[in-house]
Amino acid sequence: MIPHLMKTNRLNPLTILLCTLIGLLSGCQRSAKDFTVSGIVAGAEGQTIYLENIGLSSVTLLDSAKVGTSGKFHFKRPRPDYPDFYRLRLKNQWINFAIDSTETITFTADAKSFATSYTVEGSDDCTAIKAITLAQLDASQEIAHARDEYQAGTLSDSAYRQRIVSAAEAYKEVARKYIYARPMSTAAYFALFQQVDGMLLFDLYDKNDSRAFGAVATSYNNLYPESPRSKHLYNLALQSLKVTRNRPELNLEGIPTKEVEMIDIELPDLHGRTVKLSDVAPGHITLLCFTAYEAEWAPALNLTLGSIYEKFRGRGLVIYQVSLDDNVHLWKNVASNLAWTCVRDPESVYSRYTALYNVRNLPTLFLLNRHGAPVKRVDNPDRLESEIQALL
Length: 392
Fold this sequence. Notes:
3 domains, about 40% helix, five-stranded mixed beta sheet, 12 helices, Immunoglobulin-like, Glutaredoxin, alpha+beta, four-stranded mixed beta sheet
């Protein structure tokens, strides 16, 4: 009996090999469902490090961990269905990175310079994202310095605008290398959407920048057609292409010119009545705001404007808000609850008024003096109150 039992329970070599392969494959499948992020942060022992997902419209906290006594940390999360973006946050510093086909990424950093001096292993795209981030920080610092000089009165309007354009171009020179070398990469996507003070450094309505959006959008649409990021980017690229192709070239030769103090605007309000900026502004300090209520930042902006309006309306502040929304019903619903002058340009992104005021991004805010002449472009809504106070 014993020899017989031994014979029936013995596995032949082929069966063992098949079982081993099945085990290995199932193990690979399990690991492929997750990604890991680990590393060492010197000087951060006992502090909390956070893993966050950077979505299309918000940042979501995924996990947190205490940094160990040796500075080590470790996260393991389900891999996204499509390439996605994340960040490690330590206090008020963060490291951006992306996950596509990579399973393991390792960071080495120092707590004091967490966001800038780190090294990353396991992903060439994450290394490129670091270079892009540093270029964006350079542009941000240059623009901040230019703004300080402008507000101090040591920089003219034209010199201020040129400094901003030069800073953005220096960033784009770095970013284009990654965009055109590998437009399908997460680094290329990341490069397109870097901002300074809410302003995209790549301009959707600039012909040269439109090509960059088109290159990345085409690659993402081919590789990941069902990805929400692909669909969002593709729609932006189509809009950009439509505008840049149909924008007429301006020929100003032979047109008589005269100096004007106010650039007037004439647009319909909620009731269809034409309201001129020149009827609202004279005798007041005017906040001219170009906006779009359908944008995700619009509710927060309107709350800020409401607070400022209530504080300064008694001292002569008026607001003339120009909406570029396509959806007229949405615009009416929002505008009906606002206390200031709300008008809408039915030409939307084709608005000639945005060209006259050199509006490249939304929102764009201007302060006009009591004669209706623009005296300042306010890039940061958080500075509005102090700027208005100075004018009043």
